[in-house]
Amino acid sequence: MAGGQGEHPRQDEGDRHERLQESGDVGLEVDRKMRVALQFSHANGFPAPCYRALFAALPKQLALGYVPRYGHDPAFPVTEGWPLLAAQLIAAVEARGEPVLAVGHSLGGYLSLMAAARRPDLFRGVILLDAPIMSRFQGSAVVFAKRVGFIDRVTLAATTRGRRRVWPTAAAAVAHFRSKAPFRRFDPHCLEDYVNFGMTPHPDGIALRFDPEVEYRIYRTIPHDMARIARQSSVPGGLIAGADSALARQIGLGPARRHLRIASVAGSHLFPFEHPAEAAAAIVTMAQDLGVL
Q1: Label partner for 94 (CA 20 to 30 A): which of 86, 117, 163, 238?
Q2: Are 282 and 240 spatial neighbours (Cβ–Cβ below 8 Å)?
Q3: What is the pTM of this model?
């Protein structure tokens, strides 16, 4: 379990590759002599350490790096179209001193594509996890929704604003999320990781580490021109969609097919938490197809 009465989630938000991958690589077939820098970017509302099970299932020669929480660094605030969030990713990759394979889930996938289009010299490849590309028509609809004040209805912004933030114990938080539809299909260990790494101590127990107000602003400022960005990118790219993803069904995969390799795995939009080992295998296969591994 994520913790019993009175226990708090782990506070080390910077858990790094060595600790996160203690369990090994689940037998994935890759060239053992090749070391590749992997830069992971998380989905909105899910701090990167919450993906511990996915990270643990990746081959050990993928040297992991990540920004723990986008939107929380005052130097890279949330603004319209997320240019500074992409700049934060670029800065993180520059600090590594070598080109990377960028892998991003949802928000993180879009940021990875934006950063690669802006600085192709820093990226060996880009893999989007259930981050489908809107068509120009869909992008125009997003622009209109922002203009008339309907963007909260188009995205998950409205539900984010009223989200509960505090629980008395980690066990209470696990029970709460287990009853919610988006989390019901989570691998049990991933749900525990979400509480262990996605919460922080609070005077009344534990609280969400990812500020819901930041999450809300990210949804409201979603880019409308990802089709243009995908077209401009010269970095090899792929999209892995959840077979049962409502987002992939809603947006469709047509625009992405024009610019990216497409693959699918079992699960919903949150498949990295539902099937982490299968998600890791799909990432490796896509990286091989892109010529990165």
Answers
A1: 238
A2: yes
A3: 0.89
